[in-house]
Amino acid sequence: MAIDLPPVTRALLFANIAIYLVQMLTGDTLIVHFALWPLGPSQFADVPGFEPWQVVTYGFLHGGFTHIAFNMLALWMFGGAIENLFGSRPFALYYFVCVIGAALTQLAVVHFFTGGFYPTLGASGGIFGLLLAYGMMYPHARIMLLFPPIPMPAWLFVTGYGAIELFLGVTGTQAGVAHFAHLGGMAVGFVLIEYWRGKLPLKPRRILMR
Question: Whole-model pTM above 0.90?
Answer without folding.
Answer: yes
